[in-house]
Amino acid sequence: MHDNHSGYRISVIDEDPLRARKDARELLAALAEADSTARLDLPEPGSLAGVGDKGGPSAESVGLLLSAGSFVVALVQTWLARVPQRTILVKRPDGAVLHITGKEAREDDTLIERFLADDGDDGTTAA
Fold first, then answer.
1. Phi, psi dihedral angles at 101 (to 5 degrees)
2. Could you tell me which of 22, 26, 53 has the C-alpha nearest to residue 38?
């Protein structure tokens, strides 16, 4: 849908598309005050090729586009802690992707923060 957004994308993944959308809207509501640019990024109808086909995708991904920030990270971690069965993908503007479940978020509460804080720079600078 809006691929020209320059921020981060958080995808809620679920086998039930209605539940994925409900969870994404719930997360968006939690993020809206911290990031006024956050918005839903719903898949186009019929865009998941192979849905229902044997061997095709078994889960729907509903995304949120946001600019991120430390408060947003805290809200995402809080939301994941409440829904430990949920899986999300976090994609940075540089293309790096983090796949995490609510259970993993509880076990390592700094994982998302470290991932979003890293901008893909390897620490070296050109002289």
1. -105, 165
2. 26
Helix (H, G, I), strand (E, B) or coil at 106: helix
Cβ(90)–Cβ(61) under 8 Å?
Answer: no
- CA–CA gap between residue 87 and residue 94 (Å, rounded): 21
The model's pTM is 0.69
Q: Are 41 and 2 in contact (CB under 8 A)?
A: yes
In this structure, the chain runs to a length of 127
Contact 112, 118 (CB under 8 A): no
pLDDT classification of 74: cutoffs 50, 70, 90: confident
Q: In what order do the strands lie in the sheet with 39-41?
A: 39-41, 60-66, 8-14, 87-91, 97-101
What are 48-61's pLDDT values in tens digits? 433 444 433 446 67
